[in-house]
Specification:
alpha+beta; five-stranded antiparallel sheet; globular; 8 helices; three-stranded antiparallel sheet; about 40% helix; about 300 residues
């Protein structure tokens, strides 16, 4: 687990990038010129902040709201784009060598970059979920479908799932590559857990990239406000999840008495004795197929609802 305190000095990577000396950065010396790495990081964090805010703002919209589903897909795509941008930062801090390539990962592999290998080794598995979701949205015939459950505490928790064709006769349900079954039930993502887990992965990636390049901490005040805004959104998000998510990692975010924000990842829910599978209600929107004149959809967590004692 790593932990950082976001406050006066913001995120360490941003401050360290700002303090690079001219002979330490090569963003304009490559054939395919790049922005300064501090600007790349700040711009991408700004995009994440806007997409995350939109997703949070629309979570209680009507189930079939285009704004709601678009805000979800935009945030997923932005997380994946943010991860890719970190390889641009690696390139900015790497001397030009060999034949340049606009595909930064191809270039880093061609020069056998140890930095690239170390970073991918530390972060690739954590990012896999968001990469798979992004690829599904961009390249496969999927929809984002929304649902709400009243969990084992009878607290209303909104969420969503990536819906694809899962069987014959146009049967649609949670995509099996994205959603892991739980106690015989299909699953989905709650807004709460998805945001906290996603943000945890984002800060985890920044932590590792900083650790690879820099051994010292910056002392100057180089506050990156978008990172702080993201953390401020997360500190207001509750820890009420869908049943299977209580065993999965997420970010713990809490404001300290001195005004700093404590950020821990990966963090796990502490009270594991609760009966998470005993949910009280499931509601969601199932698509109607005009061609077949029917709706043949699978609603996540519905089997858990039927198992409750009378």
């Amino acid at each position: 687990m790593f932990e950082i305190y976001l406050g006066k000095n913001g995120i360490p990577l941003y401050g360290n990038l700002l303090e690079l000396k001219p002979d330490q950065v090569f963003h304009e010396k490559h054939t395919n010129k790049l922005a300064h790495p501090a600007d790349i990081l700040s711009d991408k964090l700004g995009n994440l902040n806007r997409r995350l805010k939109s997703m949070v703002d629309h979570q209680y919209d009507e189930p079939i709201s285009d704004y709601k589903t678009t805000s979800i897909s935009n945030y997923i795509l932005e997380i994946d784009a943010f991860y890719d941008s970190l390889f641009l930062i690696i390139k900015c801090l790497t001397k030009p060598e060999g034949i340049d390539n606009q595909d930064v990962t191809i270039w880093l592999k061609s020069i056998k970059s140890q930095i690239y290998t170390s970073f991918v080794g530390a972060t690739n598995q954590n990012h896999k979920l968001f990469r798979d979701m992004s690829n599904k949205i961009k390249h496969d015939h999927v929809n984002i479908s929304t649902l709400t459950i009243h969990n084992h505490k009878n607290i209303m928790v909104p969420g969503f799932f990536i819906q694809s064709i899962t069987g014959e006769n146009d049967q649609r349900g949670p995509d099996p590559k994205i959603h892991t079954p739980y106690n015989g039930s299909k699953t989905a993502f709650s807004y709460n857990h998805f945001i906290l887990h996603g943000t945890g992965c984002i800060f985890y990636n920044l932590y590792h990239l900083n650790k690879i390049f820099f051994n010292t901490k910056t002392k100057a005040d180089h506050r990156e406000y978008n990172a702080l805004y993201i953390a401020e959104i997360c500190e207001k998000i509750g820890h009420d999840f869908f049943p299977d998510e209580y065993s999965r990692p997420y970010a713990f975010v809490k404001r300290q008495t001195d005004g700093r924000i404590l950020f821990k990842y990966p963090y796990r829910y502490k009270n594991r004795k609760e009966q998470f599978q005993n949910i009280h209600q499931v509601s969601g929107h199932l698509n109607f197929n005009q061609r077949t004149g029917s709706s043949h959809g699978i609603l996540p967590y519905f089997p858990l609802l039927k198992r409750q004692p009378a």
